[in-house]
Design brief:
Blueprint lengths: L1 H45 L7 H37 L11 H36 L2
């Protein structure tokens, strides 16, 4: 039974790693795509002369860029965390609560912030679009 649980645990670890990789790639793709779509939206639909509440647009762009930066930073801190784990295992330290150390904690923060900042950018851009399209359609 112990061998079966170890095999199951290894499977769960791999599944968690894949899910995190997929999340990171999705956040980067969506944030980058949102930046591109927003530029096209302004140019083709609103027009550069009819923009109002530009602070919302700027903040949406800032949040999406920050989201991408957080995910990229999490890749790097994850790498550092894995190095810490390898060093501790090599030194025989396997009982520590977080073998990855501080960088493991930072990676978790960057991962969460990446998603939160993406969603915040979407909310801000939605408000910006509502204000700018509402003014042109009479709503």
């Amino acid at each position: 039974m112990e061998a079966l649980m170890k095999e199951y645990r290894d499977f769960i670890i791999k599944a968690e790693q894949k899910a995190q990789d997929d999340f990171d790639k999705t956040v980067i793709a969506l944030s980058g795509g949102a930046l591109g779509v927003s530029f096209a939206f302004i140019k083709d639909i609103i027009g550069p002369d009819n923009i109002s509440n530009t602070i919302l647009l700027f903040l949406a762009w800032l949040f999406w860029a920050s989201s991408i930066t957080c995910v990229l930073a999490s890749y790097y801190t994850s790498h550092l965390s894995l190095r810490n784990v390898i060093k501790k295992i090599d030194a025989g330290e396997t009982k520590a609560p977080r073998l990855g150390g501080f960088t493991d904690w930072i990676t978790a923060i960057f991962n969460a912030l990446g998603g939160i900042l993406f969603v915040a950018g979407v909310v801000l851009m939605s408000i910006f679009i509502k204000i700018n399209l509402g003014g042109t359609s009479g709503n």
